[in-house]
Amino acid sequence: MQRLRVWSAWAVACVLTLLVAACSGSPAPDRYPALPTYGTSDINSRPAGALRAGGTLTLPIAQMVTQFNFDHVDGALDDVWTVDSMTEPRLFTRDVKGVPHAVPEYLVSASVTGTSPQVVTYRLNPKARWSDGTALGWRDFAAQWHALDGSDPRYLVADTSGYDRIASVSQGAGPHEVRVTFEQPYADWRRLFTPLFPAAGYDTPQRFNSGWQGRLPITAGPFKLEAVDRTAQTLTFVPDPRWWGTRPRLDRIVFRVLDADAALQAFLNGEVDAVNAATSEAYAQLEKARDSDLRIGSAWDEVHITLNGAGGALADRSVRNAVQQAVDRTALADVAAEGLPVKVPLLGNHFFMTNQPGYTDNSRPYGSYDPEAAERALDAAGWKSPGDGRTRVKDGHSLTLRFVLSEGTNRLGEDLAQLVQHMLAQVGVQVVIQQVPASAYAPQYLEKGNFDLAIFRFTGLTYPSSAYAIYRRPEKGQAFQNYGGVGSAEVDKLLAQAVGTLDEQAAKKLYDRADAEIWKLGHDIELYQRPQILAVRKGLANYGVPGLGDIDFSRVGWQK
């Protein structure tokens, strides 16, 4: 359940010169309370009987969905996950603590029924059927395994982890039972086949890659896609009359493509029913907005700057380490916290959030602000300073890095990029900021490695093995989600061991060792855990900030 979020439009009101001076204009470190603790949510939970039947929910999204296949490299986006979780089989759903539970509309049971080798047996709900009338069955599992196990490079997949450990998929005791046998143990087996996709849409590379572009060819969820309006930039979903579970309370869910400023104004005008409030500018306008509630919580949501080590100056690990140490992460987190009712904590771990059990800070020394160490490393790497604050040079080339931003980036994203630009200039690294169309940012820049620096988020990685695709070395022409191409045999080995270790504490030690190596490699500049602050229309129930869990849109509705 790996989700990429391209940098959302945020805003701050802090003068750049103050930010560079350790953000002397930002709040004192203890001005705000800590993020909500592990296992808390804020969704205005209500039983179905307390909700009225019908109504429309309108929500903003960052960009138009063009690839509805979440497992495709172009589809591994948070908005695609949301759509697929409404329309395709979600075998497991996570509670507020991130613990997965079988969804009874799809599964009677699912459990490990063998350990040598590991065998998982799924008993499917006989009522569960695809929109073409076919019952869910073992062939769907088999097609998804073959598409995602990495053996056929024609399938342009976002993540093979877990699927590449499966030895076979077969029918069990009857047509509604599936046996999945693993070649190597896999601890997070519950994250596989969620969503489950139909064999009819996955059984050839052409169907996998192209069959989901701009459409949902086959579904099996409480909602179906009613309309795609590319002029109005909206997606409309309605309850699927073929759904065998409890009918959703809402009549319609509409997603509108809006940038952050437009989404904020649309909420204040009553045109959308929820909007991000996790910026100083947005929070100031939404704190006392009419007919609204603020819902605050903490999720698996990190902000980082990826470093592209595939070529250029950043191909040298010592240069990447210097860039890490030249960036004052605390100042950036203080900027993000300005004006908010919660702290924005620095992240010292790539696999666990600060309020998750087992979190360990492995960031030192490369996550520590040390511009002198950065200058020494650059000197040693042969990048010499001409003096007078000018850009360093080596073999006649200047040390210039391209920081690629989406045009959908908000004020905070732009200000953070400018702050990083200024910080790196202090050690002789020139940063050129390039803004590119939002629709091209992921497919034409991130996925093609067409950048030196890029800022974005990963969300929802409550299964630590979900992060495997981010830190493993690219292979067979596929980057997975390691867009900067930075990796090592040691990290691959540690992660492969961790994902196959069934003992939770032993696995945690392996993830910690891998995390320390990832910091040492200079894979990225891990920044902070993003707070969840959402302005929601008053009376909206079962929607908001679900902690480490998932939103069930079939339960979302308006109070009576």
TrEMBL record:
<dbReference type="InterPro" id="IPR000914">
    <property type="entry name" value="SBP_5_dom"/>
</dbReference>
<protein>
    <submittedName>
        <fullName>ABC transporter family substrate-binding protein</fullName>
    </submittedName>
</protein>
<feature type="signal peptide">
    <location>
        <begin position="1"/>
        <end position="22"/>
    </location>
</feature>
<keyword id="KW-0732">Signal</keyword>
<dbReference type="InterPro" id="IPR039424">
    <property type="entry name" value="SBP_5"/>
</dbReference>
<feature type="domain" description="Solute-binding protein family 5">
    <location>
        <begin position="117"/>
        <end position="468"/>
    </location>
</feature>
<dbReference type="Pfam" id="PF00496">
    <property type="entry name" value="SBP_bac_5"/>
</dbReference>
